[in-house]
Amino acid sequence: MGYNRGALNMLSVAEARERILSHFQITATENVPLIACASRVLAVDISAEYDLPLFDNSAMDGFAVRSEDTSASSATLKVVADIPAGSTPKVTLKAGEAARIMTGAQLPNGANAVIPVEDTDFHNHKAGTIAPEKISFAKRLKTGENIRPRGMDIHAGEIVLNKGQTLKPQDLGLLAMLGFANVQVYKRPRVALLSSGDELLAVDAPLESGKIRDSNSYTLAASIESAGGEVVRLGVAKDTRESVEALFQKALSEDVDFILSSAGVSVGAFDYVKEVIESNGALNFWRVNMRPGKPLAFGEYLDKPFIGLPGNPVSAFVGFEVFVRPVLERLSGKLGSSRRRVKVRSEEEIESDGRESYLRVKLRDENGIQIAQMTGHQGSGNLLSLVQADALLIIPAGVKCVPAGQEVEALLL
Ligand code: AMP
Ligand code: MG
Question: How far is 375 from 361, CA to CA, in rounded Å?
Fold first, then answer.
């Protein structure tokens, strides 16, 4: 029973991931201009150096008033100033006085409420109209009405963004409000990426008999970038020891955190990648008890960590999600994972071979329950069924059959 012995010797997915992760630590930090900080990971907690808003200001276009002057059923007030946004009010309102004020403009001293222009007899003015001498309205105002007081949103000293957060567009806006022109973020991990195989053609090369296009380098480069990494493209190694070694050497001359390859790590007669690692470094493992993606290698080329994904396009993708994305997340200092795991129910009965299996499924909501439906045949070369999937259903190791309707974990893509 060679197969079973093999399965017993094979590492579990969790064990393999731990072994890989234990070789990687968080990357260094750098100071980056705010404009370039989208999707970068914060390396420090950000605390506000001042209150926001920075000064009491009007929430409406209207007239700043003293609420005391509005206690009768109607009021007529003398307009003593005009305060556009961005200006410094020079008046202090006294009894019976108002000041025209624009949204966001600083409130004058003495004022404690704003009457919106729509609620006054000056409601059909146009842009450019000069302020009236008097203003009348029939409304009582509460103290503070239509005013955004200083510190309403954020107090000086308050922590507003946390170390390990991936910066979203709105986070950049907040950093700009708080005057951070440069931000301390983690360096992006750098990955040397290569494909291997004599059968591989460039995407724009003429088709040739027996050959296929190198699709993995596109899937994997985009995956690396989506995980916050930077790609150093090494190209395609031929199925010779010399060619594989030459690309690995090239990887060493780049300042990368690790080398990522696809294909050439199985038991084929021309699978040189594994051999080159064995003779120039150390092979930690090269098989994992999973499907797809069993031939997955980890080791070092000289001193550089190396992860060898399987060649089949779906296996390479799944291997990336299960082993490489977590590495990039650790290296990039990110808190938590960008891939969520959720509980779903399988629409159909699923047979499995006892390896930890990742099945391509589409999810649909039925009364709050997520139902998973397979997207097509699950061959590891069938990229279309992966393209159509929104999750990978995870059948745990040792499970041979999942009855229809049973709850299963899924990795959202
Ligand atoms: P291998 O691990 O070299 O035996 O490759 C396994 C399968 O993956 C073969 O069918 C290869 O042709 C295919 N394959 C390998 N590399 C790539 C690639 N970069 N793009 C698409 N398919 C590939
Ligand atoms: Mg090959």
Answer: 5
**Ligand 1: which residue has its CA nearest to atom 14?**
311
> Is the distance from the beta carbon of residue 310 to the nearest atom of ligand 1 less than 6 Å?
yes
Residue to mutate, 208, 213, 262, 296, ligand 1, most ligand atoms under 8 Å from C-beta: 262
Q: Could you report the average pLDDT of every consecutive run of 10 residues in the chain (413 residues)?
A: 51 97 93 98 98 98 97 95 96 98 98 97 86 96 98 98 97 98 98 97 98 98 96 97 97 97 90 93 96 95 97 98 97 92 97 97 97 96 97 97 97 97
Number of neighbours of residue 24 by Cβ within 10 angstroms: 17
What is the distance in A from the centroid of ligand 1 to the CA of 162? 42
DSSP 188: P
- For residue 292, is the peptide bond before it cis, meaning its omega torsion is within 30 degrees of 0? yes
Distance (Å, whole) CA 400 – CA 309 = 25
With a 6 A CB cut-off, is 197 part of the ligand 1 pocket?
A: yes
Strand partners, 31: 184
- Is any atom of ligand 1 closer than 6 Å to the C-beta of 268? yes
Q: Which two tokens stand for residue 328?
A: 């990039």
Quote the ligand 2 centre to 307 CA distance (angstroms). 16
Report yes or no: 78 and 33 within 8 Å, Cβ to Cβ.
Answer: no
- Please state, in angstroms and rounded to a whole number, the distance separating the CA atoms of residues 310 and 317: 9
The whole-number pLDDT of residue 8 equals 54
What whole-number distance in Å separates Cα of residue 171 and Cα of residue 71?
A: 42
Q: How many CB atoms lie within 10 A of CB 61?
A: 18
Contact 308 CB / ligand 1 (< 6 Å): no
**Contact between residue 197 and residue 311 where contact means Cβ atoms under 8 Å apart:** yes
Phi-psi region of 235 (alpha: psi -120 to 50; beta: other; left: phi over 0): left
Atom of ligand 1 at shortest distance to CA of 265? 2
Phi (first) and psi of residue 285, to 5 degrees: -155, 165
